[in-house]
Amino acid sequence: MRKRLVITTICGFLSGVFCITADIEAGLAKNIAEQLPWPAIGEILANRTLIGFVIGVSALPLGRWFIHGPVMGFLVSVPLAFSCLLTPQYPVKLFFLTLVFGMLYGLFAECMASVVFKARQG
Description:
Oligomer: single chain
Number of helices: 5
Distance between the termini: 6 Å
Helix content: over 70%
Structural class: mainly alpha
Order of helices and strands: HHHHH
Strand content: under 5%
Number of strands: 0
């Protein structure tokens, strides 16, 4: 269980770093100081890390790993998605992208734990 928690939390953190970098590179945040303030960076990083943590501690019997990861990613991403509705640029687009990428990050963390490192759900 501990191995799984460490793996998924690290994967969540890496997903957060990727998410922030992708936001900047995609032009959703043209200038990090103006478009993506430090509280937003912290919120994104905390949320994506939380996805990994929740997957690591979750024991919900959802069947297969490829269902568990996206479901947990979706559920944890909902609060962040609603905060995206307050952004001045592309609020609806960011809302849906946050949910979709949350599911993908959940799938990534679950795949790394269950398939690559063979750390079973506890």
